[in-house]
Amino acid sequence: MNRRLFLSTAAIAIVGAGAATLYAGRKSAPADGAPGAAAPGAATASGTPDLYALSLPDVGGQTQALAQWRGKPMVVNFWATWCAPCVREMPELDALGKKYAGVQFVGIGVDSADNIRKFQEKVSVSYPLLVMGMGAIDTLRQLGNPAGGLPFTLVFKADGSISEKILGEIDPAKLDASLAQLVA
């Protein structure tokens, strides 16, 4: 992908994220779907994609199945290296991940493996970073993020149901409180 096209795509995504954040009021919304066991790429009964059915490469190229974390609470953060709010919240997500060892944190990059790998050399996080690429935008829309804006964070209960959707930068105190209730 040439640089101009990449930058144009990034600018459109950032504008879309800003507009979505404005309309969403940057508030967390309760979720209505519960992922169940399905074939990869399949949707649940509620029409949302089953993230547990996905297998994505990590930055080292090893395929990681999200199903390996089924049965425990999980925070999935969609992000990109070119997304300033995404980058800003990563240390906060990492700190919460360390505080709540019983909750699995996963970052899904809407970017290339090479960009994520270079980013990880500068900003290290303790949770796995997986690569979904720009194709993740469709998944974001199906998950209740119509603009496909970033960052976008989902909080899953241990039973696999989504307890919270956060469009825009997380509020660390609110997410901390949500996770405390989730593991109580």
UniProtKB/TrEMBL annotation:
Its main location: periplasm. It comes from Bordetella genomosp. 1. InterPro entries: AhpC/TSA (IPR000866), TAT_signal (IPR006311), Thioredoxin-like_sf (IPR036249), Thioredoxin_CS (IPR017937), Thioredoxin_domain (IPR013766), Thioredoxin_ResA/DsbE_sf (IPR050553). Pfam families: AhpC-TSA. Keywords: Periplasm, Redox-active center, Signal. Residues 1-19 form the signal peptide. The keyword Signal applies. Residues 42-184 form the Thioredoxin domain. SUPFAM superfamilies: Thioredoxin-like (SSF52833). It is found in: Periplasm. PROSITE patterns: TAT, THIOREDOXIN_1, THIOREDOXIN_2. This is Thioredoxin. The keyword Signal applies.
